[in-house]
Each structure stands twice: as structure tokens, then as C-alpha cells.
UniProtKB/TrEMBL annotation:
Residues 299-496 form the Peptidase M12B domain. GO terms for biological process: proteolysis. CDD domains: ZnMc_adamalysin_II_like. It comes from the Eukaryota. The keyword Transferase does not apply. The keyword tRNA processing does not apply. GO terms for molecular function: metalloendopeptidase activity. The lineage of its organism: Eukaryota, Metazoa, Chordata, Craniata, Vertebrata. One of its GO terms (cellular component) is presynaptic membrane. It is a single-pass type I membrane protein. Residues 702-739 form the EGF-like domain. This is ADAM metallopeptidase domain 23. Pfam families: ADAM_CR (PF08516), EGF_2 (PF07974), Pep_M12B_propep (PF01562), Reprolysin (PF01421).
């Protein structure tokens, strides 16, 4: 399916669009100046003030809107009395803190009065106000308040002044986002939700990060190059007439460790194999196409959060407050994943059990995970992963549990997480989602190899219980990359539509929040390779020519042969016993001789079986011997994933003049899955695959079929059948059954010749309705009154000026300056 004439693979793009002209972004949190605008005060800020805060902008008098914040907090008697609440907060932190995150007295706390910075046109300066609200006046979406696209806050604490520049996180909620609660035993659905969740940076601090919500005071965190700061209101209820709202701000010191987890890790450290997993992953990485850009491409994890009943009760029995808590947590997680794993975490739904729990809430996370997996299958909302937040303390070494590598699966793309303070829950959720993405826990023995040397925060997947860590180690990143290379996470490449779409840079119009817009997107031609196949079971995607997005990531339908007919494709991976043995035991391992399976798995003993029924080993039938206990050669003394349950069972035979190794072991993951058995999808005979330890005909799997031609060939023999039962045609064929010849088009993208010359001409256009400040004129019916230029939606001319006056009725005449490229 490679295009003809392509002798070498190009590094894939993250999408199908080329930038035809430079484009000026909004002034970012770091204060960057757009390329196509002079260094000056950005008009986008002024426009926000004018449009969204009319009483403030009209008066130009700082004290007309509210009392200005003093330059430094002045503690009145109420604030002094509130200091006593810190003791209660200490107790709450210890109670709600996740079990693998220990509370430390070394954490410093203060009370502060944050202020919002308002920019004034006439003064060319910012003034602080203690009114923290970011709602845009007189604007709503789905009957919910709309919050400002940009905001800045000033926080004084620990002898320093922090200015946080924020941008609304438009990627947090999908367009289908829904909130669910229960009334009289029936689910109630609410479209959309209040969006007050921001990302940003500390002004003037390089590589700083901020993730805050502003729905009810400031909730969230910000970090500089040394510390992590957490902030939240001292009280949930606030008197709007008050001149300021006290907040608790906490500063973490150098990474704090849980003594319990540290001891546990030290006990396990000497059992870790000398074979470095990092070296194994590096070797595996070199074995696949090095030019693959699958990790660099932005991915989208569509997440649904479920809150149990105790979590709802904790938030004053308010499903709105509970939902806001969940969104605040996911906003924090998204800020970590997008920077380090090139993965956006997008909320598609939040469900709150307002009347009663829908499953049994227990202190046994394994049992609860299995029950929640059953409940997830009844949920009709689409999601790549569904996670439960429960106000329970697990009798377990960690604060979360999820199925390893289970993302995209309706049964295994789930996790359960302990409730706590937002930052603690964000770390726990980051860890359990990472498990869904094939990222393992890291004992202390791996720390030097994984380059996790952050002195102040440690790494997210460390088993030592580091507090408030926000960094994935080198090992974690490589494991995620390996997971993607093996075909995992296919659903992550389907970009969801955002609930709050930002202004579009490159559409030729200066929109709200933009300083300039200097050109149009140029799409790559149809047939340009935008996502290469990562393995034999994946499918290469090509640009369509009319979109900047690479098509959805698909793979071959289950059952296709791979690995020189030694394996079968299953869920996008090539399944063989050799591959499974190497994944568990390292690259020197391999699947044992067939004789081992035929002899041992029919005995029904510890050395070979098809599972266990109580205390009795189950014998495999002769038909199912290759779907039972996994038997390998060259095992290391410990597996590279999971934990040994018992000991390795070494067995060998003298067969046909040689000694053959038939060793096996029960290797159990955190979710109680025993990977010591042959995986589903592994071939067990001609046109046969394993499923639930049974060897079945592929035809018996009842998969949807792709179109056949008159000769019975799938996709007319000119394509492959995808996991969505659609034909993906070879490069020179088209049609739903790949029966139509499709001539090769120009595969070479247009050369970037730099900025093109622009010609400018003023003319008159007739508008069928009056334009507003935010109107996109290509959406109206236009009639050109002056000759020379055609103004069509397809051309999208840039409007350099716009002057209108009424002609009578609903018609307006506009004097415009239009430009045309080239």
C-alpha cells in the first residue's frame, strides 16, 4: 500500500496541513509577541475588556467597578481568625491524602488574598482587584456561564509575588460533553457544563506551568523551576460583598516519600532483574521504523469520570460542585499529559451517583475494579477510558488500580481511584491512566536507569510515594512509545470536537483574541502519507486533500496473517507465542517447542494446564493445548512486567536428539490478570485463534465482513479490511469495495515559497445582515458591487478594513479592503 515511487519514508506529519503564511497567535502567557505584529500592547486584550467588561471599559475609572486590591494583603480580624482553620486543613489533608502519598510537615502554608489583574486602555497598565470572577458578562452557552478566554491573577505568598497569565483550556471538554446525575433512580442528562478551567504560566518564569479553575475562587496549582504551589479557597462559601477572599496556598519542599512505600520498594529492589527494561525498550525501538512520528503526533484520550455517592456527599450534596471538582482534577492531569506524552485528556462525560452507589464500594480495589468494569459496559457514552473516583481508603499498597494496557477496550479501559485533595487525585489519576496506556510502576532500583532525578518532585510512576510529582521518567515515555508501536491505543488518534472552539488561526480573519491573521491553511495533497503503519497489523493513513487532519487511526481486522504467517492480527497487534514470551521475559526469550504444549498442557498440573477451577488445575483438550499455559525458553529470573506468583516452573525434555526448555510461570499484573497464559488472538492452528483459552475458527468470531467482489475477494483484492469493517484501498484504487481505479496524483507537497505578495483593493460589498464585531463575513451572502475581485467563501479574502452604513431595511453596505495571495 505504499505509494509508487517512494523509495524512503518521510517523517510523518502531525496532520495534513502546511502553513501557507505566518499566523499571529494571541499574546501567550509568557508574553510572546506575534510574528506578524509589531511589539506593542496587544489589541486582543483590549478587545476582551471592551466586549466582555463594558461597565469597566466605559468608565476607565478603576474604583468604579470594585475596590482595588491593596499592593499587599492586610489581615483583618476575620482573616486572623481563619488562620485557625489551617489546623483543620492539616487533618483533612492527612485523611484525604492518597495512601501512597504521605503527608509531610515540611510543606509550608500561608493564607493569601489573590487578586485579578485588569488591564486599562487609557492607563496602559494593570490594576489588581479582589473580585476573582472570570465570567463574561451577558454571555452563555448551553445555559451555562461563559468565561473569559484570557485572564491574569496576582498572588503574594512566601515573600514573593506571582503573576499567573492564563488561557482557557479549550481542549478540556468535547463537543458531546454531558453531565449525568440521578433523580428517582433515573439518570438525568445535562448537555455542556460551566468551563472555567485554565492553563498558563508564571509571568517571567521560563518553563513554569499553571493549571487553575476559577468557578468558585482559585483551585489548582502552579510551579516554577523549584517548587509546586497548590491553592484553594479557605471556605467554599464566600460573601461577594467582601473586599477579598482568603485562600490557602501550600508550597512543597523537595520530594517527600512515603515511608511505607519506601520500605516496600526496598524489599522488592533486590528481586529486580539485572536486564534493564530501558535497554530492552531501546533495542525494541530500534527494531521498528525509526522515522515513525506516532509519539510526536498529538493524541486524544477521551475520558469519562464517575463520582461515587460519598464523593457527592463530601461536596455538600451538590452535583454541580462535584462535577467541577472532577473537571478541575482532569484539567491538572491534562496539563501533565499534553506536555510530556503529547496526549490531551479530554472529558466526554462526568457521572455523579447522587442517590446511591451503582456498584458495591469496597476496600478491595481488585474486586471493585472488576465490578466497575461490568458497570462500564452498561454506559452508553463513548469513552476511551472510564475512571471512578471513590471516597474510600483501599486496603492496598497504592491509591488506584486499572487494567494494564486497557485503553480503548470497553471491558478493560477502566480504573478506580481514591478521593483526596485535587492535586493528590490528579496524581493518582495520572498514574492509573498511565497503567491503561501500558506504562509500568517503577521501583527504586530502576530510578537511575530511568533518569528520574527531579530533586523536588520525583517521577509520577515511582513506587516510593513521591508527593505532587508531575514528571514522567524516561522509562515511562519509552514504555508509552513502545505501547503505541505495538499497535496499542489506536483510539487515541481520533481527534474529538471541542465544546468551546477557539478562534481559528489561519482562516484569513482577525477574530476576537487575535492580533492578526496573515494567511490561509494549505492542505497537503490527497495521497500524502500522514501516519505510517507501526506494524504489520496497522494501516497507513493518507491525507484526503481537503482537511488538515490525518484520518482516524485504523488497523487491520482481527484474523489477518502476520509475521510470515506465524502470527495473527488481534486488536492491532501481531500475536505470537514468541512475541508474548519476549514481552514478559526479554528479547532472548522465545516460545517453547510445540512438543512442550502437547505434552504438558494436557496433563492439568502446575507445569501445564488451561486454568484453574478452585484448587484443581484444568486439563487442556488436545484441540486447545496451544491456548493454555504459556511455555517459554530462556526465562530471566524475574519478569519485566507484573509480579511472579510463586516461582518459575523449570521443565525440560530430551526430544528428537536435543534438550528443549518448557518453562513457565504465573505472572500477575496489579489488576489480577495472569499473563502467564497464551493471549487471545494467538494462532493455534490453520485459520484458528485462541479466545478465552479455547482454539476457535476465525470465522466463528462473527466479525463484520468487508465487501467482496464477484470472485469472493475481500475489498476486490485491492485493499484490506479495517477494524471498522471498511475497505482501506491500495494507493491506486478507490470505492467502498476498492474496485475503481484511482490515478496517482501529485504526491509532493507545495513548496513553501515564503510570504507571497499581496495586492490590496478597496471595494463595496452588500451584506444581507449587519456585521458584528465577531461576525465571519464569509458566512453571509455577499454581492460584489465593484469589479475586480470575486469574494467567495472558498477564497476567504482577508478583510483589512470594514466600514458600514445602512441602506435601508436589513441591507448594509460595507467598504472593505481585500487581499488576494500571489
Amino acid at each position: 500500500m505504499k505509494p509508487p515511487g517512494s523509495s524512503s519514508r518521510r517523517p510523518p506529519l502531525a496532520g495534513c496541513s502546511l502553513v501557507g503564511a505566518s499566523c499571529g497567535p494571541q499574546r501567550g502567557p509568557a508574553g510572546s509577541v506575534p510574528a506578524c505584529a509589531p511589539a506593542r500592547t496587544p489589541p486582543c486584550r483590549l478587545l476582551l475588556v471592551l466586549l466582555l467588561l463594558p461597565p469597566l471599559a466605559a468608565s476607565y475609572r478603576p474604583r468604579a467597578w470594585g475596590a482595588a486590591a491593596p499592593s499587599a494583603p492586610r489581615w483583618n480580624e476575620t482573616a486572623e481568625k481563619n488562620l485557625g482553620v489551617l489546623a483543620d486543613e492539616d487533618n483533612t489533608l492527612q485523611q484525604n491524602s492518597s495512601s501512597n502519598i504521605s503527608y509531610s510537615n515540611a510543606m509550608q502554608k500561608e493564607i493569601t488574598l489573590p487578586s485579578r489583574l485588569i488591564y486599562y486602555i487609557n492607563q496602559d497598565s494593570e490594576s489588581p482587584y479582589h473580585v476573582l470572577d472570570t465570567k463574561a458578562r451577558h454571555q452563555q452557552k448551553h445555559n451555562k456561564a461563559v468565561h473569559l478566554a484570557q485572564a491574569s491573577f496576582q498572588i503574594e505568598a512566601f515573600g514573593s509575588k506571582f503573576i499567573l497569565d492564563l488561557i482557557l483550556n479549550n481542549g478540556l471538554l468535547s463537543s458531546d460533553y454531558v453531565e449525568i446525575h440521578y433523580e428517582n433512580g433515573k439518570p438525568q442528562y445535562s448537555k455542556g457544563g460551566e468551563h472555567c478551567y485554565y492553563h498558563g504560566s508564571i509571568r517571567g518564569v521560563k518553563d513554569s506551568k499553571v493549571a487553575l479553575s476559577t468557578c468558585n475562587g482559585l483551585h489548582g496549582m502552579f510551579e516554577d523551576d523549584t517548587f509546586v504551589y497548590m491553592i484553594e479557597p479557605l471556605e467554599l462559601v464566600h460573601d461577594e460583598k467582601s473586599t477579598g477572599r482568603p485562600h490557602i496556598i501550600q508550597k512543597t519542599l523537595a520530594g517527600q516519600y512515603s515511608k511505607q512505600m519506601k520500605n516496600l520498594t526496598m524489599e522488592r529492589g533486590d528481586r529486580w532483574p539485572f536486564l534493564s527494561e530501558l535497554q530492552w525498550l531501546k533495542r525494541r525501538k530500534r527494531a521498528v521504523n525509526p522515522s515513525r512520528g506516532i509519539f510526536e503526533e498529538m493524541k486524544y484520550l477521551e475520558l469519562m469520570i464517575v463520582n461515587d455517592h460519598k464523593t457527592y456527599k463530601k461536596h455538600r450534596s451538590s452535583h454541580a460542585h462535584t462535577n467541577n471538582f472532577a473537571k478541575s482534577v482532569v484539567n491538572l492531569v491534562d496539563s501533565i499529559y499534553k506536555e510530556q506524552l503529547n496526549t490531551r485528556v479530554v472529558l466526554v462525560a462526568v457521572e455523579t451517583w447522587t442517590e446511591r452507589d451503582q456498584i458495591d464500594i469496597t476496600t478491595n480495589p481488585v474486586q471493585m475494579l472488576h465490578e466497575f468494569s461490568k458497570y462500564r459496559q452498561r454506559i452508553r457514552q463513548h469513552a476511551d477510558a472510564v475512571h471512578l473516583i471513590s471516597r474510600v481508603t483501599f486496603h492496598y499498597k497504592r491509591s488506584s488500580l486499572s487494567y494494564f494496557g486497557g485503553v480503548c477496550s470497553r471491558t478493560r479501559g477502566v480504573g478506580v481511584n481514591e478521593y483526596g485533595l485535587p492535586m493528590a487525585v490528579a496524581q493518582v489519576l495520572s498514574q492509573s491512566l498511565a497503567q491503561n496506556l501500558g506504562i509500568q510502576w517503577e521501583p527504586s532500583s530502576r530510578k537511575p536507569k530511568c533518569d528520574c532525578t527531579e530533586s523536588w518532585g520525583g517521577c509520577i510512576m515511582e513506587e516510593t510515594g513521591v508527593s505532587h510529582s508531575r514528571k514522567f521518567s524516561k522509562c515511562s515515555v519509552l514504555e508509552y512509545r513502545d505501547f503505541l508501536q505495538r499497535g496499542g491505543g489506536a483510539c487515541l488518534f481520533n481527534r474529538p470536537t471541542k465544546l468551546f472552539e477557539p478562534t481559528e488561526c489561519g482562516n484569513g480573519y482577525v477574530e476576537a483574541g487575535e492580533e492578526c491573521d496573515c494567511g490561509f491553511h494549505v492542505f497537503q495533497p490527497r495521497g500524502y502519507e500522514c501516519r505510517d503503519a507501526v506494524n504489520e497489523c496497522d494501516i497507513t493513513e493518507y491525507c484526503t486533500g481537503d482537511s488538515g487532519q490525518c484520518p482516524p487511526n485504523l488497523h487491520k481486522q482481527d484474523g489477518y496473517a502476520c509475521n510470515q504467517n506465524q502470527g495473527r492480527c488481534y486488536n492491532g497487534e501481531c500475536k505470537t507465542r514468541d512475541n508474548q514470551c519476549q514481552y514478559i521475559w526479554g528479547t532472548k526469550a522465545a516460545g517453547s517447542d510445540k512438543f512442550c504444549y502437547e505434552k504438558l498442557n494436557t496433563e492439568g498440573t502446575e507445569k501445564g494446564n488451561c486454568g484453574k477451577d478452585g484448587d484443581r488445575w484444568i486439563q487442556c483438550s488436545k484441540h486447545d493445548v496451544f491456548c493454555g499455559f504459556l511455555l517459554c525458553t530462556n526465562l530471566t529470573r524475574a519478569p519485566r512486567i507484573g509480579q511472579l506468583q510463586g516461582e518459575i516452573i523449570p521443565t525440560s525434555f530430551y526430544h528428537q536428539g536435543r534438550v528443549i526448555d518448557c518453562s513457565g510461570a504465573h505472572v500477575v499484573l496489579d489488576d489480577d490478570t495472569d499473563v502467564g497464559y497464551v493471549e487471545d488472538g494467538t494462532p493455534c492452528g490453520p485459520s484458528m485463534m485462541c479466545l478465552d483459552r479455547k482454539c476457535l475458527q476465525i470465522q466463528a468470531l462473527n466479525m463484520s465482513s468487508c465487501p467482496l467482489d464477484s470472485k469472493g475477494k475481500v475489498c476486490s483484492g485491492h485493499g484490506v479490511c479495517s477494524n471498522e469493517a471498511t475497505c482501506i484501498c491500495d494507493f491506486t484504487w478507490a470505492g467502498t469495495d476498492c474496485s475503481i481505479r484511482d490515478p496517482v496524483r501529485n504526491l509532493h507537497p507545495p513548496k513553501d515559497e515564503g510570504p507571497k505578495e499581496m495586492s490590496r483593493r478597496e471595494g463595496l460589498i452588500l451584506l444581507s445582515k449587519a456585521p458584528s464585531e465577531s461576525a465571519a463575513l464569509d458566512g453571509h451572502h455577499l454581492a460584489l458591487l465593484d469589479s475586480g475581485y470575486d469574494i467567495l467563501a472558498a477564497v476567504l479574502p482577508k478583510l483589512l478594513s470594514l466600514q458600514t452604513k445602512p441602506l435601508g431595511g436589513n441591507d448594509y453596505v460595507a467598504k472593505v479592503g481585500v487581499t488576494r495571495m500571489g
